[in-house]
Amino acid sequence: MKIGFIGLGIMGESMSENIVKKNQDSVFVSDLNRAQVEKLAAAGAVACENNTEVAKNADVIITMVPKSEHSKAVYTELLPYLDSSKLCIDMSTIDPDVSVEISEMVKKTGAEFIDAPVVKSKPAAISGKLGIYVGGSEEAFKKAEPILAYMGNNIIRMGGNGMGLVMKICHNTLVAQIQNGVNETLALARKMGISVDDFATAISYGGGQNFYLDGQAQNIKNENWTTAFSLENMHKDLGICQRLSEKQGFPMPGMENAKKVYDKGMDMGIGKEDFRATYKVVKDA
């Protein structure tokens, strides 16, 4: 099966590289950054001049772009090249209602469409061990699942179109709130003379033990803000959650508090740094 991949950023680069390694047929790639296209071509992909060339050649089209407006623009561009022989998989993290709008637009061509956002960050993308939440029909999910398995090992269908994204936003909002709790308590402990190492060890003994602290304690200790998942991307996701909560008339004060931290991080100009850099925002508050 010929696969196309549009969007070769931090995550898309490694996700598409796994497809190149594991798929038995051609993989067509496209990105605005030509250097990324050439990098994947060196790994065995077929370099395309633009997105439409990908759509013309691929049976399955995967997209991994930053924002709602980018995803909508890509699929609007691809519409003339879609038909009943195509399966579209948008792995971007965007507003669920925009994804539903895109799905309706795509399905009118006869093509199938699912949203399949991912969780975990760059190391999991490299190892092919991402978590993937899917929204779409059961039939489309079954067609997509073997391809998604090239990139992830925990794949779950959450319901119809848009529901994979609802779950992704709930997940990331929970991570941001856990992170904010870690930031605040770690900063207090350090002010009182407790080291990062002792804090992390002590937390691991009790009910506060969590995946975020386990994975990030040493990076925070070493002030390593190298980006695996950017602060600005998590800020975007919290903005989506804020809009969802407003539409549902459901107040989320914990989310709002975490978003204020991210708002300040963006104001500080550290949006390109890793999302753990919110520790700097909290400790200096």
Structure description:
It is a single chain. The model has no long low-confidence stretch (mean pLDDT 98). α4 (68-78) runs parallel beside α5 (96-107), α9 runs antiparallel to α10 (211-221) and α11 (231-248) runs antiparallel to α12. The radius of gyration is 20 Å and the shape is globular. The strands form two sheets. The chain has a six-stranded parallel beta sheet, with helices on both faces. It has a three-stranded mixed beta sheet with strand order 7-8-9. It has 13 helices and nine strands. The termini are far apart. It is an alpha/beta fold.
Gist of the model:
Helices cover 55% and strands 13% of the residues. With 285 residues, it is an alpha/beta fold. The longest helix is centred in the middle third of the chain and has 29 residues, at 163-191.
List keywords for this structure.
alpha/beta, six-stranded parallel β-sheet, 55% helix, globular
Q: Extract low-pLDDT stretches.
A: none
Q: Strand order across the biggest sheet?
A: 3-2-1-4-5-6
Could you say which structural class the secondary elements and strand pairing correspond to? alpha/beta
Give the helix level as a range of percent: 55-70%
